[in-house]
Structures are given as structure tokens and as C-alpha cells.
Amino acid sequence: MSLTLRYMRNADIPEVMAIEQVSFNPPWTARSYSYEINESTYSHMVALEHSNGQSAPAGWKKLLGAIAAQPPANTKIVGYGGLWFISGEGHISTIASHPDMRGHGYGELVFAAMLHRSITLDADYMILEVRVSNVVAQNLYKKYGFRVEGVKPKYYQSNNEDAYDMRLQIRGVRDFVPRFNERYAELLDRHGVIDLYSTAEFPAKESR
User: Fold this and answer.
1) Which CATH number fits the domain that encloses residue 118?
2) Is there a domain that residue 10 lies in?
3) Is 41 contained in some domain?
4) Is residue 130 part of a domain?
């Protein structure tokens, strides 16, 4: 079994939508993901790919598969997220893991990868919104230094639930980056993850 963090591709959209539809109300649309992948110049969409290690392509076959942006038959998306980066601000727009694969730390991997991507992009700070009832997610974000800065009333359309506005200051916080980088390296090592996302060049649109 292996895990790979990489930029989301068009071919991932059906799998992403299957997770999206059981994770969010209302869910994003397939068109929204297509826009984020193919048109947006500020979106950094990440996918966490799981491979069962059986009959995995190697060498030139693996390379050709990557060029064609077609996932191998023995892989599946187990988590994904969206990061918007504009003028020094990193904004986590979405994050989810496969309902059958929760409890394995995949959500934390995706979250930490987007934080590391923001650092690579030289972000001053990061923001996100989270349901006031989602204590599990809040605890994860607080673990990495996010703080509640305010409340957005009736932010979620499905039930008019409030959202916490959570923020993380990066620039100017002494030792934050080296401490996070050490934690991130340990996280990748513990899960045996290959990170092709957080320090990668922004993919050209025609290759995505």
C-alpha cells in the first residue's frame, strides 16, 4: 500500500464527487471542480491517492500514465482539499476524506499538505471556516496553531449553522516554519507518503 499527495486532475473528478456528495450539503458541483482545476489561477487542489500495491505500473508505463493524467486501475482517491492563494493569504476552501477510510489520519495529511503548500508560496497567514459543531475538525486546526478569530452567522446554507473564522499567522511568528516542517516530515514518514504536491511547480493548464 502506498499514498501519494499530488495536484488534483480532471480524471479525479468522478471519485471526488462521490466523496463530495456524501460529505457536504450542498456539495460542490463537478463544474466547480473543473473550474478549480482547469481555469482558476489561484486554486491549488490536492488529491491523496491510495494504491494497494498490486500490479502497480512501473518505469515508462507509470510515466505514460502520468502524462495522460489517467489514474492506474489499482488506485483510488481517499482524500482531497482545496487551497486558494491570493496576495499572501492561504484560504482552505474545502477538505474531505473518503467515508470508508476515515480514522486513518488522511484528513490531517491533506490539511498539512495545504499548509505546507501555503508556506512554499510564502503565505503571510491562512484562514478557513468550520462549523461551530465540528469539534473534531476544530481540534485538528488548533493542533497546528489556528485560532478562532470570529463567527460568521448562518454561514452554512443547509441548516443556517454558524461558522468559526479560524486563522493562522505564519509570517513573523518565530520558529513556526522550521517547527512545522519538522512535524510535516514526520507525518509523511509515519504514513509512508510521497509528496508531489506541496513544493511542486504550479501545473500548466494543458497538463492537468
Assistant:
1) 3.40.630.30
2) yes
3) yes
4) no
Residue carrying C-alpha cell 512535524: 183
66 Cβ contact list (under 8 Å, min separation 6)? none
Q: Any idea what DSSP says for residue 159?
A: T
How far apart (Å, rounded) are the C-alpha atoms in residues 77 and 96?
11
Counted domains in the chain? 1
Decide if 186 is inside a domain.
Answer: yes
Q: Would you say how long the chain is, in residues?
A: 208
Distance CA 65, CA 72 (A): 7
Task: For cell 515508462, name the residue.
Answer: 60
Grid cell in block for residue 54: 498490486
C-alpha span between 189 and 208 (Å, rounded): 27
For the segment 48-94, what is each residue's pLDDT rounded down to a tens digit? 999 986 544 444 444 444 444 455 568 899 999 999 999 999 999 99
State the residue range of the domain holding 112.
Answer: 2-124+170-202
Q: Is the peptide bond before 26 cis (omega within 30 degrees of 0)?
A: yes
Q: Check the CA dihedral 196-202-204-208 and report its sign.
A: positive
Residue 194: beta bridge partners? 4
